[in-house]
Amino acid sequence: MKRRRVAITGLGLVSPYGGDLADFFGRLCAGQSAVGHLQTDDAPRPLSMPFVSCTAFDPDIALGKPLAGMMDRFAQLGMAAAFDAWNDAGLPRQVGQGMRNDWGVAWGTALGGTLTYEKGYRELWQKYRERLSPLTVVLGMNNGASAHMSIQFGLGGVSMTHTVACASSAIAIGEAFRRVRSGEATVMLTGGSDVPQTYGVARAWEALRVMAPGDAESSPSACRPFSRNRNGLVLGEGGAALVLEDWAHAVARGARIHGEIIGYGTTCDHSHLVRPEAAGQIRAIELTLADAGLAASDIDYVNAHGTATPEGDPVEISALKAVFGNNANRLAVSSTKSMHGHMLGASAAIEAIITVLALRDRAIPPTAHLDALDPECSGVDHVTALRSAQPLRAALSNSFAFGGSNAVLAFRTLSQ
Where are the domains of the chain? Predict the structure, then answer.
């Protein structure tokens, strides 16, 4: 089967900084943290933790009140990102029926409509309501975002949702890529969105003892991947979308091409639900390189999964060192979660966009707050300040999830 080249023609996100895509990447390159402090009034024990919120996002303004009212917040964030990516790609909207029967959606979310269900529980158990809104099911379903996207853009092809914890949107992007490359789809809208600030979800993550502590003053620097004094991850909400398109189709319509996606690999550690294993990550990286037709020496940058957990960071670095061997100490690595937090099912899509922009603009954003490197995380070239005018050829974006699911995406510059 002939493999088609896959162009990235649209990028969109809801920025936690409140600005557009250029502002988002600029702030990351400057090392500016989007982490704030979440404080609630829940009784008997309020939430108080570092958190990344899209506080400037108003779904009624972004989507219009009728459409926004049909969606859980995770779908609202996803839909807003999708509209931006679609507009960026220069594609017209085509609501309802059309001829786009081989155009589709692949979306990622770890939590889906959890916010809707928690609201329902509060209504039933705290307010003693006997009935819920008849929209509760359609608001809460995990495929709500992808379903709305199919309707809004007239996409008659596949409409699928992947729920694979932190790897959700990496796998969604990878599967969308495979469909375009094989010729099964001409255009695929892909990405991910999540909203983890429900009380129950936040408390569940807190119970795992993997969350970084922080107050209003210390929260911005709470997420410190690869640092000797790191003490956990920071959750956040977000949505990010990419338009993947058959290269010939994109060129024929005169589309602007941001970059090219060239490889995807996914594996499972099959050993433990929450403890990562280097062997599974190594296989995922090697599969991605083979799928892309690249040698390890062709990779100039890795956007690391880098969550700032004591267990996860050293394992990822050991996997990179195993794959890249003598080239590892020259491999530029950064974890942008240090600034935008861990958005669960949206993280991989956010990081895929960052990787594409890094290659396009030849600029590598840093790992923020990395003042004292953990010796267990040494052996690669950690980026701690913006590197501009870089001769970048190809890059990887890593996503390693609870459940042992690993997914890696490969991208290259247009000059390659």
Answer: 6-252, 263-412
SS3 37: strand
* Angle at 106 (CA atoms; ends 101, 112), nearest 5 degrees: 130
Quick check: pTM over 0.85?
A: yes
What is the three-state SS of 255-304? CCCCEEEEEEEEEECCCCCCCCCHHHHHHHHHHHHHHHCCCHHHEEEEEC
Per-residue pLDDT for 96 more than 80?
A: no
State residue 413's pLDDT score.
94
Residues in the chain: 416
Give the N- to C-terminal CA distance of the chain in Å, as an integer: 23
Surface-to-core class of residue 141, CB atoms within 10 Å of its CB (0-12 exposed, 13-18 middle, 19+ buried): middle
How many percent of the chain have pLDDT more than 90? Answer: 93
Instruction: Give residues with Cβ within 8 angstroms of 198, minimum separation 6.
Output: 111, 114, 115, 118
Report how far apart, in Å, the C-alpha atoms of 296 and of each of 173, 293, 306, 315 are: 22, 10, 20, 18
C-alpha angle with apex 357: 380 to 167, nearest 5 degrees? 65
Q: How many CB atoms sit inside 10 A of residue 229's CB?
A: 9
Q: Is 326 exposed, middle or buried (0-12, 13-18, 19+ CB in 10 A)?
A: exposed
Tell me the CATH architecture of domain 6-252: 3-Layer(aba) Sandwich (3.40)
Distance CA 73, CA 58 (A): 10
Q: Identify the CA nearest to 414 among candidates 26, 83, 7.
A: 7
Sheet holding 235-236, edge to edge: 36-39, 48-52, 235-236
Residues carrying an active site annotation = 166, 305, 342
Cα torsion for 340, 344, 346, 350, to the nearest 10°?
Answer: 40
Report the distance separating Cα 273 and Cα 134, nearest Å.
Answer: 36
**365 upstream amide cis, omega within 30 of 0:** no
Residue 192 pLDDT = 98
Contact 248, 284 (CB under 8 A): no
Quick one: fold of 263-412?
A: Peroxisomal Thiolase; Chain A, domain 1 (3.40.47)
**Amino acid at the residue 395:** A
Question: Looking at the predicted structure, is the pLDDT value of residue 201 above 60?
Answer: yes
Given phi > 0 = left and psi -120 to 50 = alpha, else beta, which region is 128? left
The answer to whether 6-252 and 263-412 have equal CATH topology is: yes
Other beta carbons within 10 angstroms of residue 414's beta carbon come to 12
